[in-house]
Amino acid sequence: MIPENLREQWELVQARTEVLFLADHGGGYPDCLTGDGLTPAARRVILRRMGFRVAEEYDMPDPKDWDNPVRWPWVRLTNGVAVFLVDGIVSRSPSERRRRK
Question: Which long-range contacts link 29-32 to residues 24+ away (Cβ below 8 Å)?
């Protein structure tokens, strides 16, 4: 059983593991980064609290409408995981997954 004074830290470790697991297995939506009330800024804070560091920030156009001037915010973490800050999906390219093993 996890002591009460370590519970928050334990939850952060579990969330971090979920992010890495999903990214390494084709991508997905980790529970810690999904939710209607989460903004891109809130997702950045959550990633930071889990111990991730941002290596690169970039904007991608909407894949359904390349001519639309709206860009979608993404971050690439120092471990190669990409996070879409609008909805929290995480992924890692196959080349990054091979390099990590």
Answer: 29/87, 29/88, 29/89, 29/90, 30/88, 30/90
